Predict the 3D structure of the following.
Amino acid sequence: MIATIDFRIWEELLQRYVDDFGRVNYRGWKAEGADVLRAWLESLADVDLAECTDADARLALWLNAYNAIAISQVLEVYPIASIRPKVLGIPNWLSFLDFFTRSNVIVGGKKYSLNQIEHAILRPEFAEPRIHFALVCASVGCPLLRRGAYFPESVRTQLEADASRFIHNPDKVRYDAQKKTLYLSKIFKWYGEDFVKAAGSVAEYVGGYLGPEAAVGDGWAIVFLPYDWNLNRVEG
């Protein structure tokens, strides 16, 4: 078992196959780097989680593991147009659910699914709402995928940058001051309780990043934007 995790291989893969807009060159990755990613994920089986006691090291580990697993699962079945495929125009909800609930990657001797990492580890253990701007399920509606790994020494700074980038992206967050209305990604709906715990309300949380010029307050209406489940891909 190992107590420290080498994120450099994951970092190199992200730099090679992800562009500045968080889009992934799945075709190139599948042809050239799928085995490298699979081998790196397999190495996580040897992590000694009991010895990994530093909170930021654990946070970086689980963020990287989640995103790597999501990418790996797409590569297994690529080419696909969406992680929510359709059959005769009807969403295949079983396939969609399986993407998040299958347990096929071992970390520290135990198999984990994406849902287990997010809901049984990251959310309860860290109470860190900024993870929702870092976890990427391979859809356009998700946060932008970083062109690099999360590292223990910088993970909190990285998360703050992720939060700021997400909230200042008009595709995810925008506002109408005259109508006192916020237009928000559904991420703020699905995980609203995490933002309420951090700032008292979703509006206050978002307003903290938009700044005083937006003057966002609890009296503002919130409209949730459609979520784009199309694959965040770019052809290379």
Observations:
- The longest helix spans residues 55-77.
- The chain has a mean pLDDT of 95.
- Strands lie at 86-87, 90-91, 105-107, 110-112, 173-176, 181-184, 221-224.
- The first strand starts at residue 86 and ends at 87.
